[in-house]
Amino acid sequence: MCQLLGMSCKKPASIGFSFEGFRARGGRTDEHRDGWGIAFSNPNGFDIYRDEQPAAGSHLADHISKAEIKAKTTIAHIRKATIGEVNINNCHPFERKLWNKSWLFCHNGDLKNFSPVLDSRFVPEGNTDSELAFCKLLQDLNRDFPDGEPTLEILFDWLHNASVVIARQGTFNIILSNGEWLYTFCSTHLAYVERQYPFQEIEFIDTATSVDLSIHNDQDDRMVIIATHPLTRNELWNVYTPGQSRLFCNGHLVHEKANT
């Protein structure tokens, strides 16, 4: 299956070191060779980069790593195709507009018997179950909140309940964001780590490198990294339980809920 990566920060930061460890799983240290994508939030939405080549050897991924783009919210994905061909339209993250904002979505898992009826507003451009689920979520949000975006607490509860329902159709690990917050749901595997002062030296699993975070961050920096599986060997990663949702904003965990 695919793998997910996300970051929520107090102030704009580069995900470069974590992305390097993550992209190695796209054909070098793991089997996710069927494309990749990454998106960085900005005041007007997202800057999105996608490539159907394996992330580990992608020239575009090399460029992204060297650019050290800073953002408060970053989402990335490496793909192992199970449903849908290997092409750019099937690479995550997927983007749609809702309530005059850009929404991004990444999915890890299979929804083999998932066939919702969609109206004409939200229609997949590719042929993955992932994009289909994204369109279904946005269609139902638009239907249930016709007057616009609700409060974050109400939205979080709605997303959790909707994710639980979709997860009954298969494996549904997701990251969803409108650039201001980052919502996650775990069906099987997901974990997060908090990074704040005093920053430590971290050791990456996939690149056999270490980085002293105190050199690259100020005392008031704060961030959360979310990944399908931990990227480092010497940090405290908080592992999700199946059916658990968490929502992050400005580098803080602000809402969490488990399926009971």
UniProtKB/TrEMBL annotation:
The keyword Transmembrane does not apply. InterPro entries: EgtC-like (IPR026869), GATase_2_dom (IPR017932), Ntn_hydrolases_N (IPR029055). Keywords: Glutamine amidotransferase. CDD domains: YafJ. PROSITE patterns: GATASE_TYPE_2. Residues 2-260 form the Glutamine amidotransferase type-2 domain. It comes from the Bacteria. Coiled coil: none annotated. The keyword tRNA-binding does not apply. PANTHER family: GLUTAMINE AMIDOTRANSFERASE, GLUTAMINE AMIDOTRANSFERASE YAFJ-RELATED. This is Glutamine amidotransferase type-2 domain-containing protein.
